[in-house]
Design goal:
Blueprint: E1 2-6, E2 20-23, E3 26-29, E4 32-35, H1 37-45, E5 53-57, E6 63-64, H2 67-76, H3 80-83, E7 87-91, E8 94-97, H4 115-134, H5 139-152, H6 156-170, H7 177-192, E9 196-200, H8 208-215, E10 224-228, H9 231-239, E11 248-252, H10 257-261, H11 271-281, E12 290-294, H12 299-307, E13 312-315, H13 325-363, H14 366-379, H15 392-404, H16 406-414, E14 415-421, E15 424-429, E16 438-441, E17 449-452, H17 466-479, H18 487-498, H19 520-542
């Protein structure tokens, strides 16, 4: 059976001795129509009888059509009966038969397409393939995957990869143990997602919007996804009060076509990198986890991301590396693992960092801000080659010492010191109504007497500010060398002195223990103790 392919209505009436006529599948492409090679081939394969010869035109006026490309699609098809058919090409209305049975098919990447665009075309399809392997009976996922396929398979470069993946799917199932691993880590990721997540991606039209919706939604998650296609749109969303609870940012590094094609642009000038820096400086978002998505895994790109405060990065699947089911599953799983790891660590340490930033903001204290930034640098889970070697116990110990060092700053902020005489020192505390004087008799003597004036010590329970007064008194006594300061504060100091990594341990009864690691609860108690001092003093001040 001889089958001719052409344009219906244009040359379908001309008889070239064919037994059957099939019209090219097309779609609009600007002012022209693009011939869809693979869909046309599927029409041929749907015939009840196997063709014995194909007749195709050499050119089509007003259409994006290349007969050599169409022949290459036929020769590359996995149906051997079709790929070996003789083809008659009609040249200028003169029959010219030539056999292309052995034509070499060249799988070149699409012209004018850079590595980043290849990844942005291939990666959404690869994620959908992973989800379809996870839920093979899900018709919606299958349809979305096939939508990506119909677009990609028109390029021979992608057709080869897609047909190879389909052969794997139909063949050996030995690699499917990766599916259960992907399922496990995806579920962990979904359970740790915040209530609201911002996704910054300039190529949402390539299918990323649908991909992320399907990847981050199931019965275990209720995350609200916000999308932005540019740095400006992302900043506008971050500026809105209703989005102050954004708990995770998924950030594409190159947010414009110029950046995707312009390899000469320094990494530090890429819009995604600059946006990450701005987020880190924005009040309320200094500690929000940021996961960068990029088509590049070059070391200099990753170093810049680390410097600007990105917590993790995910290299999008590229057709060069993610060209098997196993590689695709590993790549999609890696995104889930990185987000889960990032969010788990943030949930463990995020409150310490947030509260220290909040205290620095409330007190407007530059030294506290420096220490908040230092704590952030210490505790954000960087993706540097050494982060996996840094024991969490060591990080906790360093975090405790950093926060403990804020005690003095809180004390200096809370009160002003005035020398009244050689034996009397007055401390004026912020936010308290009538004067509160802390007086020491026998200046410089560790056994000095401390008095809170204008308060009856026997009726201290009546004064709601007594708790904060005791804490401030403890700080002043400690910094003045007195050993009888606040018991809770002494407990904090005792914990600090147990650590091997301290400076100036002056307590002969407490020796450093190289095997001692601070527990998270001990850091919680210290941060909350300091936070209450700041909040109570500010509250009393607001009531004046």
């Amino acid at each position: 059976m001889r089958v001719r392919i052409g344009l219906r209505g244009q040359d379908s009436e001309t008889d070239y001795g064919e037994d059957f006529f099939i019209a090219f599948s097309t779609k609009p492409l600007g002012p022209r129509q693009q011939v869809k090679c693979h869909e046309t081939i599927e029409e041929i394969l749907s015939l009840s009888l196997v063709p014995t010869q194909l007749i195709i035109p050499h050119s089509l006026g007003g259409h994006d059509y290349d007969c050599r490309k169409f022949i290459s699609h036929i020769r590359a098809d996995k149906n051997n009966a079709l790929s070996s058919l003789p083809i008659l090409v009609i040249l200028n209305h003169d029959d010219h038969e030539f056999n292309r049975l052995h034509q070499k098919v060249v799988y070149e990447s699409p012209k004018g397409t850079g590595r980043h665009d290849l990844s942005n075309k291939w990666a959404p399809y690869s994620v959908m393939c992973s989800l379809c392997l996870l839920e093979p009976e899900n018709a919606e996922l299958t349809e979305l995957r096939d939508e990506f396929k119909r677009v990609l398979i028109e390029e021979l470069y992608f057709k080869k990869l897609i047909l190879s993946l389909e052969e794997e799917t139909e063949g050996d199932k030995s690699e499917y143990n990766l599916v259960s691993s992907f399922s496990k880590h995806r579920n962990k990721c979904l359970k740790n997602l915040p209530r609201k997540m911002l996704i910054v991606e300039d190529q949402l039209s390539d299918g990323w919007r649908n991909v992320y919706k399907r990847l981050f939604f199931n019965s275990n998650s209720s995350v609200e996804l916000l999308f932005a296609e540019s740095a400006e749109e992302a900043k506008n969303k971050l500026d809105q009060k209703k989005h102050a609870d954004i708990g995770l940012v998924l950030l594409d590094v190159r947010l414009s076509a110029k950046e995707r094609y312009g390899s000469e642009i320094p990494v530090k000038n890429l819009s995604g990198v600059k946006l990450a820096k701005e987020i880190r400086q924005k009040e309320g978002f200094q500690t929000v986890p940021i996961v960068a998505t990029t088509a590049s895994n070059k070391s200099w790109t990753l170093e810049e991301l680390l410097e600007c405060g990105v917590n993790e990065y995910w290299a999008k699947a590229s057709p060069e590396t993610a060209n098997s089911l196993a590689a695709i599953l590993r790549n999609t799983k890696s995104l889930c693992v990185k987000i889960e790891k990032c969010m788990s660590w943030s949930q463990k340490t995020g409150e310490w960092r947030k509260k220290l930033y909040a205290m620095a903001e409330k007190t407007r204290d530059a030294l506290l801000l420096e220490k908040a930034e230092s704590l952030q640098a210490l505790l954000f889970q960087a993706f540097s080659p050494y982060s996996s070697k840094l024991a969490h116990g060591l990080q906790n110990n360093l975090a405790y010492i950093t926060i403990y060092s804020c005690i003095n700053e809180i004390g200096l902020w809370a009160c002003n010191k005035h020398s009244v005489s050689d034996i009397k020192v007055q401390y004026d505390l912020k936010g308290l109504g009538d004067p509160v004087i802390l007086r020491v008799k026998g200046k410089g003597d560790n056994k000095a007497t401390w008095v809170i004036q204008n308060r009856n010590n026997e009726e201290r329970e009546k004064y709601e500010e007594w708790r904060v007064l005791e804490r401030i008194l403890g700080i002043i006594q400690m910094t003045s060398g007195n050993k009888n300061f606040n018991p809770q504060l002494y407990s904090f100091k005792e914990t600090r002195n147990r650590l091997a990594i301290i400076h100036g341990n002056d307590d002969p009864f407490v020796t450093p223990n190289k095997n001692y690691d601070v527990e998270s609860k001990e850091i919680d108690d210290l941060v909350n103790w300091l936070e209450e001092i700041v909040d109570m003093l500010l509250y009393f001040q607001s009531q004046k």
